[in-house]
Amino acid sequence: MKSVLITGANKGIGFETARQLALKGFYVFITGRDEAKLSAALDKLKNESAYVESILMDVSKDESVINAAELFTERKVQLDVIINNAGILLKEDRSLLQNDLDFLQAVINTNSYGAVRVIQAFTPLMKNPGRIINISSGGGSMTDPVGGWSPAYCVSKTLLNSFTRHFAYELSGRGISVNAVCPGWVKTDMGGKSAPRSVEQGAETQVWLASDAPHKLTGKIFRDKSEIKW
Ligand code: NAP
User: Fold this and answer.
1) Which terminal residue of the chain, N or C, has fewer Cβ atoms less than 10 Å from its own Cβ?
2) Can you tell me which atom of ligand 1 is nearest the CA of 187?
3) Domains, the chain, with CATH or none
């Protein structure tokens, strides 16, 4: 049975990705920073599959990620797939001129370093072949025009894209592919009610990359299962 760890999976795109992969027969570890929300999400997922577990893990904190990885080591769990989905978009994120470096650091700490922490701590627990998928955003694209919305968030996703390419290079010898996904604008707490895409659509590309996509695809960014420009 293949196994997957998904960060920030108590709601939104992460939860839906967990649900779809559970239905595809994966053993799913959902992780999140809030015990009560995580346990509610686990109860919902248990209606769909017996092979789901929850692990408390705040990706913004070194200790929390290391503790979670130690738990996996003690239990000798090996992972086929890691999906770095946890992310924040703060309402105060309107201007790089007005938001100080602590603000920028907080956004980057979760959206970019969060994935780095998880990859560093969990890669030793991955099988060969393995797959890592980082949930990015079109907002991080260097080829699209700058949109004037949530600049700290956009910068954090550009950084995540760059980490994706470098980890793909470093992990190629370990048989681990590393890719990024732009889910599009999705109806979630983050995306809001006006977003045109459903969570089902928002989860599709990472579900494909975790399961049916050719393993040789690495160091790329995808939207709707097709490669897009960085
Ligand atoms: P969401 O509904 O706000 O869910 C975000 C998830 O991340 C929640 O489970 C949240 O947990 C978790 N999270 C935040 N900080 C965390 C931390 N420090 N440790 C662990 N978990 C943490 O957002 P979403 O729309 O599903 O977004 C999922 C991913 O897709 C994000 O990376 C986002 O940037 C990306 N994305 C979304 C859209 C969109 O239109 N929705 C577009 C492009 C990219 P809590 O419940 O505890 O806050």
Assistant:
1) N
2) 41
3) 3-228 (3.40.50.720)
The Cα–Cα gap between 213 and 206 comes to 9
Residue nearest to atom 32 of ligand 1 (CA): 87
**Cβ of 100 below 6 Å from ligand 1:** no
Positions marked catalytic: 153
pTM comes to: 0.99
Q: In a mutational test of the pocket of ligand 1, which residue from 5, 33, 39, 62 has the highest number of ligand atoms less than 8 Å from its CB?
A: 33
Which DSSP string corresponds to 60-128? T-HHHHHHHHHHHHHTT--EEEEEE------TT-S-TTTS-HHHHHHHHHHHTHHHHHHHHHHGGGEEE
pLDDT in tens, 2-45: 999 999 999 999 999 999 999 999 999 999 999 999 999 999 99
10 lines ligand 1 (CB under 6 A): yes
| Structure tokens belonging to residue 30 | 């959902």
For 59-77, the pLDDT digits (tens) are 999 999 999 999 999 999 9
